[in-house]
Fold this protein.
Amino acid sequence: MKKTLLNKDKGKDFLTYAVVIVAFVIMQFLSSQGKLSSAVTGYLVPVCCYIVLAISLNLLVGVCGELSLGHAGFMGIGAFSGVVLATLLKNTVDNATLRLILAMVFGGTLAGLIGFLIGIPVLRLRGDYLAIVTLAFGEIMKNIIGNMYVGTDESGFRFAIATAKPKLVGKGKWILSGAMGVTGIKKLSTFAVGFGLILFTLFVVLNLINSKEGRAIKAVRDNRIAAESVGINVTTFRMKAFVVSAFLAGMAGALYGLNYSSLDAAKFNFNTSINILVFVVLGGMGNILGSVISATVLYILPEAMRGLADYRMIIYAVVLILVMLFTWSPKVKEYTSVVADRMKHLFKKEKEAAAK
Amino acid sequence: MNILQYLINGISIGSVYAIIALGYTMVYGIAKMLNFAHGDVIMVGAYICYCVTVYLGLPVLAGVLLSMVVCTVLGITIEGLAYKPLRGTPSLAVLITAIGVSYFLQNAAQLIWSSNPKSFTSIVSNMKPLHLFGSLTITGEVIVTVAVSVVIMIGLTWFTSSTRIGKSMRAVSEDRDAAQLMGINVNRTISITFAIGSALAAVAGVLMCSSIPVLMPTTGSMPGIRAFTAAVFGGIGSIPGAMLGGILLGIIETFAKAYLSTQFSDAIVFGVLIIILLVKPAGLLGKQVQEKV
Amino acid sequence: MKKLLALVLTLAMVTAMFAVGASAEAGTMKIGMSGPLTGGAAVYGTAVARAAQIAVDEVNALGGLQFELNCQDDEHDAEKAVSAYNTLKDWGMQMMCGTVTTKPCLAVGPEANEDRIFMVTPSASASDVAYTGDNVFQICFIDPAQGKISAEVIAEKSLGSKIGIIYDSSDVYSTGILDSFTEEAETLGLEIVCTEAFTSDTKADLTTQVTKCKESGADLVFLPIYYTEASQILTTASKIGYAPLFFGVDGMDGILDVENFDTSLAEGLHMLTPFAADAKDERTAAFVAKYKELYNEVPNQFAADAYDVIWAMYQAATAAGLTGAESNEDICAAMIEQFTSMTYDGITGMGMTWDEDGFVSKAGNVVKIQDGAYVSVE
């Protein structure tokens, strides 16, 4: 029994890797043949970012059962720190891909570190209270980054959190300039690196889920008190998941930030957090492949509906509600299973008839 | 003297948060779901009142009553179509449908009323502001909003503790399965909760737009989130908690802006919120429920 | 059911993927427009889309070079704006009217520069916008210029001795003007007694900011913000009995047409605006009448800017003898040449010229509101 269960997990993980790799190969092939429109080419990198964000949030929400409404905050930390580092390294590191990877690692590390610091007090809370605290944290991050100034001038590296733009000494330039954010970013992100980040994320998250700790985490989600009573140290595991999740979100943020020419703090707001959460819930809690697919589909859906003009967003809303009802409603599930049974029955009869 | 003026300003915005938070907290307490579309029902309420008073030229009272009726119908419809089919599923699933409903209402409002802002006429525009001790100003809106929120809070407390439906609401909130076994119609009770919550949203919309006169399709969303914060702050599910949370949030926000920094007020408000939740993890007046195995 | 839905979605995606645009016929130029058509900033994008359509219809009615317009929603978001831009590119866009707001424009500008698509923004006014490429032009005043002119006018006419400021710290437009205003005010020796901020999240309650200005004794309040929030500030100020001189910039235009707004509150309000919907000249009057007839609303300054973008493009394209059959690169080069050398008379200013960076030079006009109408301040 135990063996089949493990095999089933392995099979599913294999399928997840396979889907991602096949999708990458197909897109690369189409792109090399010049068959992709500019719009689709433009979606590639952000879709990679959102897939990573969805997987990392799924680790927190789906696997650990902790509702977080501030995931965009970690993404923002990663995006800004990554972009600033990439700009600072412009003259020292020549290789663009290396600079991108350094920026992603730096962004991820910083996000993970801040996740750790926040996690110490915050992870004492549960459920909706944890949700509201993560929401609050996201808003605080946005507010601080929106008043943050980072740059270089003749006195060296400058960093300030201020209400008004500080003056530079002599010749210099602000890289991050308060509400204006960062402008004139040299774009570094590529689909290949995005794909690599997805694989890395899958590797980290799937290993964590399938490890002994991962099973402990799931036990904690399903029944915390029972898990505690058999001696599972709840807090350490939650912390680990929280930090890993923040780290991956930071990396995705850096990739995202370096994919556009400008970046501002307002992007990393509550709505972005909610969007990522929608990807997770629609894809299925704890279902990693589901997150990959739903992030892709839900990102492209509103873009594919551009032809509907004024009615685009309202129809998107209706589709969202309907999909939720169809995938979650117990009544619909019951109905579909009845229909499926009948179909099976019908086929069986036909088969029998044919055999006769 | 300044401090008193800021206190009044804080209570003013706080009581708006409080009314919205009352709707949030009631629905949460009974249906156990975060109704993120609540803020947008408020916006619809304000638009209805605006249309009735400005386009049809009817008196304010008619506007308020009609918008309550429309919002109640809207609330019941939303609940029946989008939330009811998901009863019994994890609360996150309903949360996402609520977000879908919120998008829907905002975009529908934009199609119906256009994205151009409208200036909402205060429902107490003919009430002269009160001037005390020379420099202190209390506007009619403040008095009306505070009074209405107190009345609603007392009314709701009485309703849930003394009436039959109110008692069944409390029963459903305590233990849904047990309530069902005791012969309480859970679905009907939840629908009634939504009806009341939405009617309150209409009142909240009218009062909010009286204090903050700009009406747009996105008007409800940010105050909605603030009010949700307030409800958690006070202890979500608790009616006096929502009131207290709303008023305190308003005061903290105003004082942070007045004495610390308008640029960093968000960070300060949410920082205070985090600290309070760390000290009192279930909010100010929330019950700390011990989970059973 | 789930599978069916998934199938439908996949099909939709595949169609979108291969919908590569067709090339334009000769004599027709494809103009793309991108701006917020949904969400909190929808009012600005919608105005631009509508006015651009009016101008395109007028151009086409002339019978010469034909324009085809395609408007895409960018939700006031850099990421969506790049998607919108790519969609337009696939459609075959040859010139761009946009983007409407600054943030998306900073992301789209470099893309357009790389693809050599000529771009004129009606209203993205940060100075950085024009610097994103030689192909990016602005029809609106840049923010630093607005801040500077405002400070100069205030000093010159001694409109106020103690200045208070309320601005949107989450908005690029607002902070851009604020920075240059404070700098210029310092040089001119103006006294700024308080600088208060709000953000797009906290704009619900502006009472405290107004009260702080009152407490600090400011007799002039500078508002580098859009008219939506300004109408809120004016209402709040009147409620608490505070009546300083309010001074706004081009985002203030439109305040008199906020539905149901008590315009008597705006009495005495000064603002820097290149456009007045009640101007008497024939073109403005015709445009305003047409807009009102079609959409039942008075056009704001965004609409007027968009109208000018299309007409300026038409003037340049006909002068260069473009037919729409040229490559984007040729169109871009020809348009840059025309724009940097021509003079254009529009409804937001007469005798507009552009420099090589793409900045417009047109007369700044300070007006004040008197009896519910704009009156020029001499």
Residues 155 and 190 of chain C are 7 Å apart (CA to CA).
